[in-house]
Predict the structure.
Amino acid sequence: MSGTALRISDALVRRIQAHGVETYPHECCGALLGNDSEAGRETLDLVPLANRRNDSPRNRFEVTPEDVRMAEKKAKDLKLEVIGWYHSHPDAPARPSEFDREHAWPWYSYIIVSVQQREPRDTKSWRLRDDRAAYDPEAIESVAQSASI
């Protein structure tokens, strides 16, 4: 999977970072909407979601099946697909935890933003290997904001 890149506008990255700051010190979460083609994977919109985790929202997030269906419906309405998920790591690095790995699915892109003391820091993307053993880094490639959304 090396050599893969996730194309996303700086404006969408800033929206993810702002969501992480807004929910600090809890994790934020949301869906990445876009398309996956021979030209590559591109994020064109976001669906911010509520963190449904009640027992430890500071270091875990949870979405419900209804959240997933709502994100898939919005993607379909925009003629896009859910291509991944994002969440924040309050006062922690922008790398997947073991919990993240255990609850992730291969194929999707996973953007993680590190929010340190209410300030967004590193924003990185990851792809889970097909055997689910580990994540590989996925380069984030900045693109101009799409006019189609």
In short: The chain has a mean pLDDT of 93. Strands lie at 5-9, 29-37, 40-49, 81-90, 109-116, 119-128, 135-143. The CA atoms of residues 58 and 142 lie 29 Å apart.
